[in-house]
Sequence to fold (281 residues):
Amino acid sequence: MPPPDHRPASGSGVEAEDVETVGDRLGPPADATSDWLPPVDIVDTPTAFEITVEVCGVPRDDINIHLDGGRLTVWGVRHPGGEAELHHYRERRLGRFARSFSFRTPVDQRGIAARLADGVLTLTLPKQQPKRIPLE
Amino acid sequence: MRIVWNSTRDWLQLHARLGRALGGPAVRRWASSAQRLPATPPLDFSETAEAFVIRLDLPGVRKQDLEVKVADGLLEVAGEVPAWSHEDRAARPRRLERFRGPFRRVVPLPRQANTEGIRATLEQGVLTLTIAKGVPDGGRKIDIA
Fold:
């Protein structure tokens, strides 16, 4: 499996990588491949990056968010539901999913907030404010 | 010769045919928002002993932006995801992959479906429609006079 593509951020300061392999340090097994890539939006505001990920039907406990170095990964497994039913027709994406994001603009790691509503995961990553070092 | 009546197979064939005529999966998918025609969100169809179950992925769609109708044996789910906007005027979208625009899905219901008994729930972005079975599938024996 080739390593994830680190595409140039084209000045946006954040870039989504369409990961196929998620590094073992991030949580899932090293050979975990994603079966599908949930669509994401990335919005850049003066104070934060806002990332929304479509994870409809995935229970809260099955969504994992990992931050390692400058890389944020959202991953999990989507189960079909209705196991006892006789399935005739299936179009919805199922199985393992993962998306990773890296940032050029430093983010305040402790200030990251995650919210799940209507099957959409919203991550808010505050931008690190430049620190002024006073001269003594 | 024995002819096996398979209502599910017939339903699926009808679904495929009507789907093509009405803009179903054979024509366009949920993500194809480039065109002005409504998109078709992904759908699963299953059944239990008592009911048919239809699930549609509608991430971020709120109840008030969604309409479910049934008429002439056709179930219609339609709505619209509003265009991207942000309360902060200085906000800039860097990547927008999520679907926005009108969507519509028409599903021909199996003959057994009892359209009086449809229950709809919208949870975690998944619309689940449970349609009670009204007529038993066992067929009917016709006595020869």
Summary: Residues 1-12, 17-31 of chain A have pLDDT under 50 and may be disordered. The domain at 14-80+92-126 of chain A is CATH 2.60.40.790 (Immunoglobulin-like). Chain A touches chain B at residues 12, 14, 16, 39-46, 50, 52, 54-59, 80-82, 84-93, 116, 118-120 (CB under 8 Å).
